[in-house]
Write a structure and sequence with these properties.
The protein is an alpha/beta fold. Helices cover about 20% and strands about 30% of the residues.
């Protein structure tokens, strides 16, 4: 299994002939190395409905007949745009042909902002647990720190966690280091930083704060293999 990071919160997982993209914010993301025309995801997983996470989902899904997994409200909205979807919600898990997906809590907003200056409610934000090839991967989405991260780690021993560190809209480095301790992940990768001026951070400082796990700063295109 190959797991790669592509700037902001974009993560790609290649497993058993399937390609999974999480939060494919590509156009407008100056930190990504991906191009919409080159990507052919079988599955797209969305943590919430903000524009910098939904990103290019509709174009990618229509072009590639991708299955989009998201919370019920966001999945329903996308289905109205003739995108193939699988709705879920926080606390629910489902066994797909590539592995198991479970949505967890995340404390954040989830509205899609339109060109017409409307904000459309897109349901609750979520983190994502993926159980694939005997490994557990956690993408926290956008969230603040919360104590139930301890419960997530206790019930689902995590091999690799992607945690936001940008501050301002999500956890900052100090809270994310506490989150890593709560989750007890074996390895932690910082995400959701440097894309916009309010979320500028030094990811190495975050990694240096980690005491109970290995940290790894990934550049766009870097790969972790299991």
């Amino acid at each position: 299994m190959k797991i790669s990071y592509h700037g902001h919160s974009v993560v790609k997982i290649e497993t058993n002939g399937k390609t999974i993209l999480i939060d494919p914010f590509i156009n407008g993301n100056e930190l990504t190395d991906l191009k919409v025309d080159d990507e052919k995801p079988d599955v797209i997983i969305l943590t919430h409905g903000h524009n910098d996470h939904v990103g290019d989902t509709v174009e990618l899904a229509k072009k590639n007949d991708s299955l989009v997994i998201a919370n019920h409200e966001l999945a329903t909205y996308l289905s109205w745009q003739l995108v193939k979807t699988h709705p879920m919600h926080v606390g629910g898990a489902y066994e797909f042909d590539f592995g198991k997906v479970k949505l967890t809590q995340a404390f954040h907003g989830s509205g899609l902002i339109t060109d017409g200056n409307e904000i459309i409610y897109m349901g609750m934000p979520a983190g994502v647990l993926l159980m694939i090839e005997g490994k557990t991967i956690f993408h926290a989405g956008d969230t603040g720190l919360f104590s139930d991260m301890k419960l997530i780690g206790e019930r689902h021993p995590i091999d690799l966690a992607f945690l936001p560190i940008g501050d301002n809209f999500t956890m900052g480095p100090e809270d994310a280091a506490t989150a890593a301790s709560f989750l007890k992940a074996k390895k932690v990768v910082p995400i959701h930083y440097d894309t916009f001026p309010p979320i500028k951070q030094d990811p190495q400082k975050f990694v240096d704060m980690l005491e109970d796990c290995e940290g790894q700063v990934m550049k766009a295109g870097d790969v972790i293999e299991y």
